[in-house]
Design brief:
The complex is a heterodimer of chains A (133) and B (178).
Chain A lengths: L1 H5 L9 H13 L3 H22 L1 E2 L9 H6 L24 H17 L12 H8 L1
Chain B lengths: L1 H10 L5 H38 L16 E5 L6 H9 L3 E2 L1 E3 L14 E5 L1 H5 L4 H15 L5 H12 L18
Antiparallel strand pairs in B: 1-4, 3-4
The chains are: A mainly alpha (133), B mainly alpha (178).
């Protein structure tokens, strides 16, 4: 398994030493659950260091409120909602509350930015740039 | 409408509605607290720029009060350049990023002369102008007085640990006035 990884080293842009360290961690795990624990431990280390003990002065970062953080793991995030707001504009059924959430979002964004048009789906700046330019 | 068509179906297929809900809730927070929050962010950025300059760290835009936004740019050439400085500060639990400044060439992106600092998070943790002086002190101890980051990190942590609540939201309202 490690040989197939190594043969891709010439196309790998990531730091190979850090990827090798991750493989070593996973190889030392006795079960997939231990692999999961390795991920959780890394997240916890970051939360403690960056979230509690560091002065974060990165200009593009913005911490979200506890309510926002809780919503990011809400059940609705597992639902498919392709299409536009409104029953006939969707690909999938069962979206009436999703319509409600999205309509509230669109109208709140219009209020915040004092705009007549807003879209709630541009949750990454690259997609936003591509739409506008 | 062409703009909406570019969003769906051209770029976005199934988007994540949890993020839409979070965005909606953030928008409500900004309706209530946005103006005060943003104003304090800019005051803090200007205060941090002035505090660093007073301690011998050159900050761009002095003639404009250093910034009109959340960010300031320091010229850290004399302290080893943006990459080296950002890595040294991180060892003291101060997280910032390297940045190109006007005297750099585009190909210097990996080792530029500038350091970019923003005040969004420290502001939301309830810090004001006085705390920017403290942060500038920590940075000057490492860059100007050349203290080892390992000798500063404990003071940074002691300063940071009491600030654990995020303000300007319905969970905790506005920071208390001191």
């Amino acid at each position: 398994m490690s040989t197939s990884h190594e043969s891709h080293d010439d196309v790998e842009v990531h730091d190979p030493a850090i990827l090798a360290q991750a493989r070593a961690v996973l190889d030392a795990c006795r079960s997939p659950q231990e692999m999961q624990e390795a991920v959780l431990a890394a997240v916890a280390r970051n939360g403690e260091w960056r979230g509690r003990r560091s002065i974060n002065l990165l200009a593009p970062e913005a911490p979200t409120s506890p309510t926002v953080r809780a919503l990011l793991s809400a059940e609705v995030g597992t639902r498919a909602a392709e299409g536009h707001i409104g029953a006939v504009n969707r690909w999938f059924a069962g979206t009436q509350y999703i319509d409600e959430i999205e309509a509230l979002c669109v109208e709140l964004l219009k209020k915040v930015f004092r705009a007549r048009y807003a879209d709630h789906r541009l949750v990454a700046s690259m997609i936003g740039n591509m739409v506008v330019y | 409408m062409p703009l909406t068509h570019a969003i769906f179906p051209v770029l976005v297929a199934t988007h994540q509605v949890n993020r839409v809900a979070a965005l909606a809730v953030s928008a409500a927070e900004m309706l209530a607290y946005g103006e005060m929050y943003m104003a304090q962010i800019v005051r803090n950025a200007r205060a941090l720029g002035a505090a660093l300059a007073r301690r011998g760290i050159p900050v761009l835009g002095a003639h404009k009060g250093y910034t009109a936004t959340q960010q300031i740019i320091a010229d850290v050439r004399q302290f080893g350049g943006g990459l080296e400085v950002a890595q040294r500060l991180a060892r003291a639990n101060i997280i910032a990023n390297k940045n190109l400044i006007p005297s750099d060439r585009p190909e210097d992106w990996d080792r530029p002369s500038g350091l970019r600092l923003g005040t969004i998070e420290v502001t939301r943790l309830g810090m004001r102008e006085a705390e920017m002086e403290t942060i500038a002190d920590f940075i000057a101890r490492i860059l100007v007085e050349e203290e080892a980051p390992e000798d500063v990190v404990e003071d940074v942590t002691d300063f940071r640990l009491p600030y654990q609540k995020l303000y300007y939201c319905f969970d905790s309202g506005l920071p208390e006035r001191d």
